[in-house]
Design brief:
The chain is α/β, with parallel strands linked by helices. The protein contains 5 helices and 4 strands.
Amino acid sequence: MPARYLIVASRFNDFVTKALLSGAQETFAESGVRDVEVLWVPGCFELPTVAAQAARSKRFAAVVCLGAVIRGETPHFDYVAGECARGIMRAGLDTGTPVIFGVLTTDTTEQALSRCGIKGGNNGSHAAHAALAMAKTMSRLEELTKS
């Protein structure tokens, strides 16, 4: 299993995403992971495409998707958040590589800020921890299924 990880981050709402990214990078560094690549995409809707391609390559132990979809006055939130979540889940299921959903879906900017480390805990860090745990689990599963 490669000890390499990829973070795919959304530029939209980057005042939140940059904080999530910082939390994820810090967690990887504290865990001794030195090989972490970062790719930026325009928005959360684009996260699954890049995540699926990366996961398909089998060059990463896990792919972490980071972003923030904040509810506005139109139904745009529902389309972006739902399809982003479905696409990220599908990328992991279709490839067998862990693809982690580190996308905040909040009603307000204040809620997003309280989840990205600016005013509270950092969900980017939680996503990195999930990636590490899933990579370990998948490695163990590979051992168990070889016999």
